[in-house]
Amino acid sequence: MKSIKIVGTGSALPEKILTNFDLEKMVDTSDAWIVERTGIRQRRIADENTATSDLVAIAIERACAQAGLKPAELDTIIVATSTPDTVYPATACWVQKRLGIAGSAAFDISAGCSGFLFALEVAANLIVAGTAKKVAVAGGEVMSKVVNWKDRATCVLFGDGAGVAIVVPGDGKSGILSSNWGCDGNLAPLLYQPAGGTRLPTSEKTVKEMAHTVHMEGNQVFKHAVRAMGGAALRALSEARISAQDVKLFIPHQANMRIMEAARERTGIPFEKMFVVLDRYGNMSAATIPVAIDEARSQGLIQDGDILLLTAFGTGFTWAAAVFRW
Ligand code: UT7
What is the tens place of the pLDDT at every residue in 161-219? Predict the structure, then answer.
């Protein structure tokens, strides 16, 4: 076991709610289609002045308050995001600026919707190696600013938000019992943002063609997501020698209720144990798992010793899963 402890969690969600009925007025879609095909009813949308670091900074303040720490005491800030404030520096650096702190290591992880689990794994290894002692592990996204609001196949899916876990060395009782991660870069073109990098720098043409927004082959992503999330979760359970009955909460990445259900069914975990925030927040990419953990915890659903099964899939394609004892 990688002995670590989560001593505080926090989340930040923009106030503005965009319902499926609002979307009906924007594109050719319906509440019935969105609910049936995805399970999403509404999502939060950041205002024009809010960037990813703003949401992450608020979530860090809340998580630190719960942990009884000041943000200045953190020695490492890791932000998992696909919607950074800027191409460089890392969003984690803007988070420091926003919090008025300096000195800690601060960097981003780009692993799409699997980003929070990648960041948690990195944090655990830094802690076990003795490199870090007080780590803010964040997943934050402002997806609404990289979505093409004229493309009904993608714009109905995403939402904005951030979640944070404060991770410190454990006392041997809590931590990651098993974890796995992976990527198949050959499938990258199935879900990506074509423009804005060195492959296709921003130009008048890329803006006109909306190449700076999410491009996704939804059906293909769906198929791979089902296979990878379920597979990673099963591997994590078997390596930890934990049975489905021993899992207190199953928290999958929340992109589509049908994908989550397929992954849950493969693990044999009962429906009641799956924690869902998708209906209210949509797909917040790297933020879905930490926001769900924070909400489950604040509802009193997670106690010391409880076993969580976390699994994710995203652009890359990346996947990851972890069995965590709280
Ligand atoms: O976070 C990880 C990354 N993302 C994901 O995991 C998303 C994975 N993919 C999905 O969740 C699903 O593929 C979608 C929700 C995106 C689409 O669901 P689907 O059941 O795969 O639908 P589809 O793409 O096969 O489209 C079915 C029909 C099409 O119409 P025709 O060709 O059958 O006439 C689409 O044009 O639904 C149409 N459609 C819509 N209709 C109303 C597509 N989007 C919409 C919409 N409203 N928003």
Answer: 999 999 999 999 999 999 999 999 999 999 999 999 999 999 999 999 999 999 999 99
Output the pLDDT for position 11.
98
Within 220-306, strands assigned E span 249-252
Q: Which two tokens stand for residue 155?
A: 């714009």
Residue 91: left if φ>0, alpha if ψ -120 to 50, beta else—which one? alpha
Per-residue burial over 203-229, b if 16 or more Cβ lie within 10 Å, else e, is: eeeeeeebbbbbbbeeeebbebbbebb
- Residue 225 Cβ inside 6 Å of ligand 1? The answer reads yes
Token pair listed for 222: 């769906």
Its sign, for the CA torsion 289, 293, 38, 280, is: negative
The reply to whether 253 belongs to the active site is yes
Going edge to edge, which strands form the sheet with 135-142?
Answer: 105-109, 76-80, 135-142, 160-169, 2-12, 175-183, 318-325, 307-314, 249-252
Element (H, E) at 80: strand 76-80
Q: What is the pLDDT of residue 114?
A: 98
Backbone φ and ψ for 102, nearest 5 degrees, come out as -155, 160
What is the atom index within ligand 1 of the atom nearest the CA of 156? 48
Residue 71 has a pLDDT of 98
Closest CA to 113 of 261, 216, 8, 10: 216
